[in-house]
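Thread: PUL domain-containing protein, structure

OP (GT): Posting the sequence first so everyone is looking at the same thing. Length is 337 residues per the record. Can we get the structure tokens written out before standup tomorrow? I want them in the notebook alongside the other entries.
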Amino acid sequence: MRATSQARGITAMPTFQFYKNGAMITEMKGANSSQLERLVRQYSGPAPEKPKVVVERSPYSNFPQARFCYFEVMKNLPMIKKKILEENEKIGDTHQLTNGEIVLFEGILDKLTATSFYHASKFDTLQYAVLLKLLQWPNNKNLPALDILRLMVLHPDAASHYAASYENDKEDNVIAICVSFLMETELPDTIHFMVWRFFCNLFKEERLHTSLKELFRQLLDIAESSYLDHKNIQVKLAIATLCFNYSVLSIREKDSEKKHKITSFLLSFLPHLNDPEILQRGLLALGTCCYKEPQIQTQVNPSLDKLNGQMDTVYAGQQDKILLLKEELSKLIHSNQ
């Protein structure tokens, strides 16, 4: 080895160091391959085994759910841009965007669609101000802005900004603004379902979970008092998704109190659902709340026959799509009896 190295013009020889538990135990200078092999055999050995982490697996394929569900589609952004620019030509001077604000608004859309550096991008303070201005347009004109806001809170930088605005109750506390929209029940359904979607998307970034925890009871109370038998399918889908996400959050935090509240709401809400996708999402939330909660299972048990009948009706002719969910929900409810 030394002769070969010297023939190639290499005169310095390597030094091999052997460590154990972070401390050097020996070293070898030079290029003696036999000695190196002997030291490797002497000091090498099997890597220490890491302690095994035992993760208890659920016996059910549907429960508990572990991932949040979001409304992430942004394919309509070009249309949103067109609507806002068209409306900006008609709206009064107080609300109209200046040319500079239009450039800032277009920059927001660029950052939302620039997937290559999405997570590294940041929004300017003036861009947040422009979106707030759009949200303050008359309620029959601000739907496109709400659609953008729904996407903004999925972005890490915007999520941090709006979490801080909520926690410090700043002027652009869009979370408080959206709660007020839900309480104005005379607003168009399109506004309402977009706002419910906005709250579903707050689950994406953990920084926003503080607001969701604090608003938990208020949001479910609003849903129960004003939206329980709502006719709009998109509103019902968004509310079912909100319950689904709260059920996942309650599992992660082992919060039995939240599970009880969600379950009580769902037992009132589910009978009003006749769409397969919405009913399934609500049932997944219900089963997630029931998982390892004997008291909640007892709470749900009297309603199980009606729920089974509702599933048969809603899934008439396609019972195979709901069969496993139906079987597992029944088994889960009766698991502690």
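GT: Both are above now. Quick notes for whoever picks this up: The beta strands are 15-20, 23-29. The mean pLDDT is 90.
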